[in-house]
Design a protein that fits this description.
The protein has one helix and 18 strands. The protein is an all-beta fold.
Length: about 290
């Protein structure tokens, strides 16, 4: 696949202070048990951080938890959108985060002009996590050229760059594949189209735009497992890496949500793509394993 680099870089504003900070702002205590037909054993997880998006309708994203990345530089993937911090592109509605991609001519403060706008959020400097279960309940948009994603970057990206920092793509979808999502890792020697990936396709022609689904990754010292609705579809371990490369998933990562428009992997929107497009996020939750 000519896949990913979705993460190639992120805005310098978001990179100003990347620290290992465990802020439990607004976190609700709780546990979660995962046990499915494709999981070896039931596992208990303790909730340590979440955003349930409970703010009043029309509210901006919680700035104590998220950075709004901005810019229209293509993000390393020849994307077409300009990411803004406007509520037109990201706001709270009905207890959900709504990321909206709009078709509009927009000139940013850097004088870059793009014909689409959208939003990209990350938790750098607010919350990072090393190992655990990271999940979100999301309803995806649908249409050629759309690229919604829920993913993570190593918090040392400002020091070592990408892909040495590591990237975990918990969920990516391209609009021309409405029934399929992908889970991928990237690191030095296995990045961009060489990322190590798996995919999950809904049965019976169902689309991810039709209903909410839970996308998650369980990350341990020597394994990362990818799930849709608690169905395990891919496990990646150091043994899966290309010879001579390094497993770089041994330090804290931060969380990212975004809805890209166009790019090298999804291709560009065409006459069949309607706008506006909305990515609805019911919650994002991060757990640590109980009992070690």
């Amino acid at each position: 696949r000519g896949h990913l680099g979705n993460a190639s870089w992120f805005s310098s504003a978001a990179a100003l202070s990347i620290a290992t900070v465990f802020l439990l702002v607004g976190c609700k205590a709780g546990t979660r048990q995962v046990s499915s037909g494709r999981t070896q054993t039931a596992r208990q997880w303790l909730l340590i951080w979440s955003d349930e998006f409970r703010a009043p309708d029309g509210s901006a994203v919680d700035s104590a938890k998220w950075n709004m990345e901005t810019g229209g530089n293509g993000w390393g993937n020849k994307e077409l959108e300009y990411y803004t911090a406007r509520r037109q592109n990201a706001h709270i509605e009905n207890g959900m985060l709504v990321i909206t991609a709009l078709k509009e001519s927009y000139r940013g403060p850097d004088n870059v002009i793009r014909e689409y706008t959208s939003a990209r959020l990350n938790t750098a400097g607010h919350f990072t996590q090393e190992y655990g279960r990271i999940e979100a309940r999301i309803k995806l948009p649908y249409g050629q050229g759309l690229w919604p994603a829920f993913w993570m970057l190593g918090d040392n990206v400002g020091q070592v760059g990408w892909p040495a920092c590591g990237e975990i793509d918990i969920m990516e979808n391209i609009g021309r594949e409405p029934s399929t999502v992908h889970g991928t890792i990237h690191g030095p020697g296995y990045s961009d189209g060489g990322g190590i990936a798996g995919s999950f396709t809904l049965p019976g022609g169902a689309r991810f735009a039709d209903n909410f689904h839970i996308f998650s990754a369980e990350w341990e010292t020597a394994a990362i497992r990818f799930y849709v609705d608690d169905n395990l579809y891919k496990t990646i371990t150091p043994a899966d890496l290309p010879p001579g490369t390094t497993w770089v998933f041994d330090h804290p990562f931060f969380v990212i949500l975004n809805l890209a428009v166009g790019g090298t992997w999804p291709g560009n929107p065409d006459s069949t793509t309607g706008f506006p497009q909305r990515m609805l996020v019911d919650y994002v939750r991060v757990y640590k394993a109980m009992g070690g």
